[in-house]
Amino acid sequence: DERVKAALLFGSGILLAVLSILTFKDVIKKNVSLSQLKLKTHHMSIITGFTMSFTNPLMIVFWIVYVQFSYDIGVIPHYNPIFLLTFVLFSGLGLLTYLLLIAKILHHARKSFSKEFIKKINIVLSFILAGFSVYFLIRSLQLFKLVM
């Protein structure tokens, strides 16, 4: 139903707006620092990084955004169950590869990131979240207008 889709888009837009504001506020108020935890083994750090990334709420929000955006631009032509299952399986494989690659890269390069660089990355990402929030809110309002 289009009303449900519009409501979910509106809720996602609000959620992304709140996350964007909180991220931007957090960067401005605090000094962003890298964790100085010493992990026992190389493999344990990869597993920990992967698990933290996979269960990160922002990663989950990203996948919600990704599926909706893919549907809007036509990458997902329709919600056929077999097509969606294939899409989810390959997206999951891509996610697994991506997170393992990020964990591996960050494990080797963690000392090369300065606090200022991480602060700039977080500011850029908060603006990206705000952009997706605006997109979802506009899209939900368009759908509400069509349904009503």
UniProtKB/TrEMBL annotation:
A cellular component term, taken from the record's GO annotations: plasma membrane
Location of the protein in the cell: Cell membrane
GO biological process, one term: amino acid transport
Organism: Desulfurella acetivorans
This protein's name: Lysine transporter LysE
Taxonomy, superkingdom: Bacteria
Keyword GTP-binding: no
Membrane-related topology note: Multi-pass membrane protein
Short name of any one Pfam family annotated for the protein: LysE
Swiss-Prot/TrEMBL keywords: Cell membrane, Membrane, Transmembrane, Transmembrane helix
Membrane spanning residue stretches: 6-24, 45-69, 81-101, 121-138
Cell membrane keyword on record: yes
